């Protein structure tokens, strides 16, 4: 099929390249000229494992192209995907101005039947609203709108798309259902067909539920610390029950990223507008906001509240591993708090440092973890990168000033840390006291 994808962020780019990989002809459109020029050369604006190779392969196979010219890109397309950003407004509501601009542009040009699909995460009712805009601009209704929300995760976006567990297709016509089902057949996945409003709701409900699992286990972690239990074992014991499942029960410093914080707030706003008080999700957000500061409390506790002049090595800045995305990363809030206390923070992240400098004023970074930890009073882990999982703890102990490790991601075993003589504080587990001065 001929596909046009509008917006080349994570979602537009990954879904565009994956649609081309399964045999379609895809044009990805963006208003950012620089981005498009780079993409034409196979230069990828984000760090995402496997993406560059797949983009280059599909450009060479002439199945994938990039353009700033929506009119031409639309001309031969049967299906148009809208994949622009829907950032949060001040009150939590999703800002639909980019979606509105795209719908208006599509409407101005639309002259034959196409299916126009929203891939961006949008409030319930947006599909119908888009339909109204396009009808008004085009002066006809020879098109269908549909919803096909995206469930990929950053850092494993290609895998998640090529191996999707389900495709949700919200439609109001047989033709749109037929075309979108056909498009998804090569993914050999479960297909959930619904009306448009239901599809829009599925996306928010899924993200809010995953966020709930994280805040739930973080609250259990906080109780574990008070009563002397180990949250990693609690999560294992709970998660082996199929009805609960192991996934998303890793306690830590809470969720960040461009979606969970934004989408939970947007859902609260959708509920409010509908006259409903969404109590659970409000608390999920509240718990998450506080959870990141527990790491700050643990650093202070290690030094009897005196961080003045302490050299702290922060390992990991991105909101999760395998991405350079800094949106709503816990490090943005944690590092300035440590600096306010007079600590000298030296940070290292395998790929996110460039973006981190835009988000964290006065951030000092170094090019390797070993430079960061040299003579450090404490090492603080904020992102669970594989590189940190494989840290040689004996070498580390030899280069730091004192063996203090504060771990926001529960990466090491308490027994190992005890044996190596570290002071080791993590989340929802007992603190190994070691013998620091
Ligand atoms: N980032 C992620 O992992 C996921 C994001 N989503 C949702 O997908 C949507 C897109 O997210 P991202 O890809 O992260 O967004 P992004 O903000 O990184 O990228 C959006 C792109 O759209 C372009 N754009 C804006 N206005 C345009 C216009 N009028 N015409 C053409 N291009 C235009 C921008 O230049 C930018 O390149 C959001 O609604 C998000 O909630 C859903 C699942 C996963
Ligand atoms: O709508 C979206 O944008 C996407 O949001 C999330 O994907 P993403 O934000 O890329 O990353 P996740 O792997 O879900 O992690 C989100 C945050 O939760 C944290 N997390 C995750 C799992 C866990 O057990 N504990 C935990 O603290 C991570 O560290 C990270 O900060 C969802 O997992 C995707 O399905 C969805 O498509």
TrEMBL record:
Pathway the protein acts in: Nucleotide-sugar biosynthesis; UDP-alpha-D-glucuronate biosynthesis; UDP-alpha-D-glucuronate from UDP-alpha-D-glucose: step 1/1
Keywords attached to this entry: NAD, Oxidoreductase
EC top class named in words: oxidoreductase
UniProt key word Cell membrane: no
Oxidoreductase found in the keyword field: yes
Gene3D superfamilies per the UniProt record, alphabetical: Cytochrome c1, transmembrane anchor, C-terminal (1.20.5.100), NAD(P)-binding Rossmann-like Domain (3.40.50.720)
A GO term, aspect molecular function: UDP-glucose 6-dehydrogenase activity
Protein family (similarity comment): Belongs to the UDP-glucose/GDP-mannose dehydrogenase family.
Entry protein name: UDP-glucose 6-dehydrogenase
Organism: Sutcliffiella rhizosphaerae
């Amino acid at each position: 099929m001929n596909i046009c994808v509008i917006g080349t962020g994570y979602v537009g780019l990954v879904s565009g390249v994956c649609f081309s990989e399964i045999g379609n002809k895809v044009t990805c459109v963006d208003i950012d000229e620089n981005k498009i020029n780079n993409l034409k050369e196979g230069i990828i604006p984000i760090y995402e494992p496997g993406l560059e190779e797949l983009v280059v392969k599909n450009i060479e196979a002439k199945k994938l192209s990039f353009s700033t010219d929506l009119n031409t890109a639309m001309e031969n397309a049967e299906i148009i995907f809208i994949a622009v950003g829907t950032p949060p407004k001040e009150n939590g509501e999703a800002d639909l101005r980019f979606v509105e601009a795209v719908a208006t542009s599509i409407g101005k040009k639309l002259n034959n039947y196409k299916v126009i699909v929203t891939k961006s995460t949008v409030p319930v009712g947006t599909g119908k609203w888009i339909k109204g805009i396009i009808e008004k601009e085009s002066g006809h209704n020879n098109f269908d709108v549909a919803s096909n929300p995206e469930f990929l995760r950053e850092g494993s976006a290609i895998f998640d798309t090529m191996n999707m567990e389900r495709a949700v297709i919200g439609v109001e016509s047989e033709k749109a259902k037929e075309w979108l089902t056909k498009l998804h057949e090569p993914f050999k996945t479960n297909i959930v067909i619904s009306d448009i409003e239901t599809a829009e709701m599925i996306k928010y409900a899924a993200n809010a539920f995953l966020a709930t699992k994280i805040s739930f286990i973080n609250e259990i972690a906080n109780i574990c610390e008070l009563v002397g239990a180990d949250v990693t074992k609690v999560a294992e014991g709970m998660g082996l029950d199929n009805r609960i499942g192991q996934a998303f029960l890793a306690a830590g410093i809470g969720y960040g990223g461009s979606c969970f914080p934004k989408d939970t707030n947007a859902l609260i706003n959708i509920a409010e507008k509908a006259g409903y008080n969404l109590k659970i999700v409000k608390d999920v957000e509240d718990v998450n906001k506080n959870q990141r500061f527990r790491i700050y409390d643990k650093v202070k506790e290690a030094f009897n509240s005196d961080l003045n002049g302490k050299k702290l090595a922060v390992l990991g800045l991105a909101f999760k591993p395998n991405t350079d995305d800094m949106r709503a990363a816990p490090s943005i809030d944690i590092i300035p708090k440590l600096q306010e206390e007079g600590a000298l923070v030296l940070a290292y992240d395998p790929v996110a440092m460039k973006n981190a400098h835009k988000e964290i004023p006065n951030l000092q970074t170094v090019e390797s973890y070993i430079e960061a930890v040299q003579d450090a009073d404490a090492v603080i882990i904020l992102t669970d990168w594989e590189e940190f999982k494989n840290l040689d703890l004996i070498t580390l102990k030899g280069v730091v000033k004192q063996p203090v490790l504060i771990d926001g991601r529960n990466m090491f075993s308490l027994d190992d840390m005890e044996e190596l003589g570290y002071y080791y504080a993590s989340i929802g587990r007992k603190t190994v006291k070691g013998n620091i001065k």
